[in-house]
Amino acid sequence: MKRVGGWLNPSKSSLASSKSLTAIDEPHALQEAMRSASLILNDEMERAESELAQGTSPFHKLGRATTIFLRATLGFEKEIMEQASSRLADAEEAASDHRRRAMRDPSTARQSKIYPVGAEYALCHAETQLMSAVVGVLNESLTESLRGFYKLRKAFSTLQELVEAENRYLEKHVSSSHSSLASSNATSSGVLTPADTGSDDESLDFQDAEEDVGGARQPTPTDYQGHLDLPNVRDLKLQDNGKDASASDKAPVTVPSAASSDSTRLARTAYDELDFTTVTDDPIDIFIHSGTALCFGLLQLLLSMVPPAFSKLLSIFSFRGDRENGLRLLWKATAFKDNINGGMAGLITLGFHNAAIALCEIHSKEAYPEARIRALLSDMRSLYPKSFMWILEEARMLNADRKLESAVNLLTTGAGVSPLKQVEALRVFETSLSLMFLHRYQECADSWLKCVDLNNWSHGLYYYIAAACHVELYRISRDSDLAMAASHKEKAKKLFQTAHSQSGKKRFMARQLPLDIFIQRKFAKWTAKSRASGRDEVEVIGVSPLEEMIYFWSGFPRMASEQLQLSWDRLSWSDDSTRNPHWTDEPVDERALLSMLKATTLRCLDRQSEAQKVLAEDVFCYDLSQIKACPHADNWSLPVGHYEKAVCHWQEAGGQDGDRGKLQECSDELSKVEHWESFELDARIGLKLTTARETLRRIGIGHT
Questions:
Q1: Does the model's pTM come out above 0.85?
Q2: Given CA atoms 267, 268, 273, 277 in this order, what sign does their dihedral have?
Q3: Domain residue spans in the chain?
């Protein structure tokens, strides 16, 4: 790609656009902005906005951009995303201007013993680009998504230079022993930008200058490695400035893979116990250090979670994530949790573990360090006691422990109402999920309908689940209270119709949301069955749509035995001829789906052998062609059935240290899913599949 010397040759007009911070003013501006920005983590958004608006520095503008960015990513609301894009662009421009000025006249700029001139603004610039990239990808426009990936690439380039500058300083100044160990492997930070693509990018109307932090150009690597292998930076022992590290900071980091090189292990040993505040007490240097760890960690984590469906798009930009490195960096950044960088790292780390990893059935013991997570949550609640985000995280941990009632009580009686609409929407959303898993149908339906007023992410989904609750209430009351049954049937009909009319309106990277496609197909299936049989849409519904939703939202592993028994009873309604005489008319896709969900229920009740028998006799007895031949087929029971069988083998083995034969059988079943053609909502188990494969790979279990 053609380099543009925008950093080194700024226009006079851009330099005159706003007053530049002096080296004397800069620390005060940063301290003021960081103090105000920390209010964001305490749910005091309005106060943070007000205080940050009083300053015009790049730090203040970054803080204001962060407030609207959080609103946008928590709520997925289009108008908020548009505001975020505008404010991020303003913050990006301010950081760019100040960085140019610092590089143009270094003698008047702040001098750091570690980082090159203008590095603090380079970090601000990279952070705004990273946030802009996330907003762009969440945007409904494919063009904006592509712009977002381009900004992601630019952020990588800037952050790489900051890392290398820090590495060079540590090698020379920390100690002679550290220097000799680190020098053997410090030829590259391991964070390489994608190769230049000649003139191909010159036609892009959203090009940015490809700058060097220090002003002097350095060679750009020709290959992008895609993963962060930062032996010097990622393993620093970060601690709060002048404070004792909490238990969450002292906990051991994830053990590196056996494939690590000898030189990397040496460097890791050399720097593991290094407290960065012993290297410098300069608040701006600490801001750069913690911010770089946050950004690199988030980048790696996000890229490692991209669904396979978007891998081709990512390959254009040569991106590949590394979850282990990303989490290691985020944990390091949490040591500075009293500033916005560390606080954001804490929020991301807790959210990833409690909303993602805790729901994966196949993972190593180290993948979910419960004691460390609880310590981090305790620290965050102490530092930011007004925030509802920590209540959400505590509720998620209760759910993971199968304490659904306690989670609902915490969310409904002990939480109150968040002053931030987007956080309040999350509280109601989490409450709705827990009520769904508890089979508290009326409360669940009412709660999902509240989500409609709080968030516009997927109204179709909210109405659909509410309707599914009334289907269950109809089936329960049909033989005992005809009037009540008729009322629930009518409500289910109206809600399903509303769900159908509301689905398909949202877009992600110019595509319909997968759940919207699912809802539209289900409605088409029931409509066709209704016309063919002469019965209404509620009567022709086969397998419980609510139990399907419970599976898609990983509810079965979070249920105690009482709730699992309720799921078994609701599933058994379908093939009970005394309650549902029409089951014999159901096509094979419904039969396979019912049996797969029953097998999952048995597996979660620790009845693995029975679960496998159901899978073998009542799911795998059908082949894919039979399933696909059904009108508007539910095509996911076979591949997901193989995943469930893999989990059975994992549980029978006793986990990562168990029977190798069973673990190999687990791997073999995963391979079948990995090689399966695309199926409906495959992204719902994508993270589980990736986590399972990586877990097995690390213990030496591979494909046969």
A1: no
A2: positive
A3: 35-196+205-326, 417-561, 587-704
Tokens of 500: 């159908």
Measure the CA angle with vertex 50, ends 48 and 55; round to 5°. 95
Alpha helices (H) along 240-339: 247-250, 262-271, 276-279, 283-304, 311-316, 323-333
Cβ atoms within 10 A of the Cβ of 203, count?
7
Per-residue pLDDT band for 237 (boundaries 50, 70, 90) equals very low
More confident: 387 or 209: 387
Name the DSSP class of 237.
B
CA angle (646 as vertex; 645, 648 as ends), nearest 5: 65
- pLDDT digit string (tens) for 639-690? 999 999 999 999 999 999 999 999 999 999 999 999 999 998 888 888 899 8
Interatomic CA distance for residues 351 and 398, integer angstroms: 14
Contact 692, 646 (CB under 8 A): yes
How far, in whole angstroms, is CA 571 from its chain's centroid? 31
Phi, psi for residue 512 in degrees, rounded to 5: -65, 150
CB atoms within 10 A of CB 452: 16
DSSP 595-654: HHHHHHHHHHTT-HHHHHHHHHHHTTTS-HHHHHTSTT----HHHHHHHHHHHHHHHHHT
The answer to whether the CB of 2 falls within 8 A of the CB of 201 is yes
- The dihedral built from the CA positions of residue 583, 586, 588 and 590, taken in this order, carries a sign that is negative
